[in-house]
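Section 5: illustrative case.
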């Protein structure tokens, strides 16, 4: 690692809506300029920002450490990092539990939820003061995480800051919990502090002038170089070095994830590919009762070979099952988009456009070069769409089926309106 050993493990991106003031692209570009080899993204009760961070990490060469800040109902806050794929699954399941029991945009988690799902996770407690409450929380961390439990040492830029760090360090040593330095980054550069004040004002539904002590008390929440962090925490060399060791232990990458499709076979002794091929040729015989044209046969054979090589047969079978249910109930449905380029989708009844007649290209839908999973969009009539949704829940289970989540983002008009209000501009001027 170039320069002093330090990795920033506590970074909030703009996917912590109205809290973080910098994008993943800005954060990772800054980290690359500083010579950092890794950077953690720890948005609040969410993993929504790690996809953008994953892309930014690829572009900059700075390795992404997947993390999350958990704010519990009891007031306890901690950072968690999966060390491997099973641990990532535990974290995803934990967040799903918290969001399922809370309202929109919220997450309700108890300490018992965390303690039951912390296998393979590294935990860092975010403390306030070195008091009895902090001691209780550290004991909980030690009991649940074992030697993967840590205590964060972070400057608050308040009176007696150094005394606070000293007391926290002593408390952690007494309870046999390791300390680690973090900077609790909210933005990538000092000049982004102004925007951070604006989003804070929007979050509190007030103006920047009226924020008072609700705004950040200092402009120190920007990303710092490892050398600067060593200067600020010169009394805690072990806690600084431990950040790099934690980063090294967190080797999970989103590249390890792959689609896992449901099993749709009627006969468990027959493969999904064989089932799809049988349904395809049966559907082709129905679509072309006077005989399957030679060019259609060639297209179907080509598509089935490609589907087999990419192991996409289970996905086609799942979509086919949903469409067959809808049609069996007389629910109007229609596949659209790039799936219309597929002869297999046509003969299965998922789409209604014959690719053979329209000279469409299957590789626009599924390509071995791109190796991107297929995306079959199916529209269902609005009045009866709920019937299809409930059938999916019953068939696949509510713990394995879900509606797509949408992350709130600003568009230009909404951003201008809210920023204007935060700056105290009159409505007619905005």
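Designed sequence:
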């Amino acid at each position: 690692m170039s320069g002093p050993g330090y990795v920033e493990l506590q970074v909030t991106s703009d996917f912590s809506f109205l809290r973080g003031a910098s994008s993943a692209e800005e954060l990772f570009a800054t980290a690359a300029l500083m010579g950092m080899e890794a950077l953690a993204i720890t948005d609040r009760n969410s993993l929504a920002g790690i996809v953008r961070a994953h892309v930014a990490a690829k572009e900059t060469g700075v390795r992404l450490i997947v993390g999350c800040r958990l704010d519990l109902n009891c007031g306890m806050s901690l950072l968690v990092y999966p060390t491997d794929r099973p641990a990532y699954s535990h974290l995803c399941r934990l967040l799903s539990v918290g969001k399922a029991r809370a309202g929109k945009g919220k997450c309700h988690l108890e300490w018992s939820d965390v303690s039951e799902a912390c296998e393979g996770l590294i935990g860092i407690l975010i403390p306030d003061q070195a008091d009895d409450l902090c001691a209780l929380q550290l004991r909980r961390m030690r009991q649940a995480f074992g030697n993967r439990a840590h205590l964060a040492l972070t400057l608050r830029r308040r009176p007696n800051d150094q005394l606070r760090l000293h007391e926290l360090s002593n408390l952690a040593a007494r309870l046999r919990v390791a300390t680690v330095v973090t900077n609790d980054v909210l933005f990538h550069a000092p000049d982004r502090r102004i925007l951070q004040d604006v989003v804070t004002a929007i979050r509190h539904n007030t103006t920047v002038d009226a924020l008072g002590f609700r705004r950040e008390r200092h402009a120190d929440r920007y990303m710092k170089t490892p050398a600067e962090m060593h200067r600020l925490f010169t009394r805690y060399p072990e806690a600084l070095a431990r950040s790099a060791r934690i980063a090294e232990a967190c080797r999970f990458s989103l590249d390890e994830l792959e689609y896992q499709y449901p099993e749709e076979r009627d006969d468990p002794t027959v493969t999904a590919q064989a089932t799809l091929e049988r349904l395809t040729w049966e559907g082709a015989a129905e679509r072309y009762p006077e005989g399957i044209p030679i060019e259609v046969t060639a297209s179907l054979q080509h598509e089935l070979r490609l589907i087999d090589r990419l192991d996409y047969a289970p996905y086609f079978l799942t979509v086919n099952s949903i469409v067959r249910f809808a049609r069996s109930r007389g629910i109007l449905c229609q596949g659209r988009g790039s799936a219309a380029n597929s002869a297999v989708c046509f003969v299965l009844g998922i789409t209604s456009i014959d690719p053979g007649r329209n000279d469409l290209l299957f590789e626009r839908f599924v390509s071995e070069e791109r190796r991107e999973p297929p995306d079959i969009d199916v529209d269902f009539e609005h009045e009866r769409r709920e019937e299809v949704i409930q059938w999916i829940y019953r068939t696949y289970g509510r713990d394995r089926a879900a509606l797509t989540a949408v992350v709130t983002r600003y568009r230009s008009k909404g951003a201008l309106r809210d920023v204007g209000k935060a700056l105290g501009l009159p409505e007619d001027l905005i």
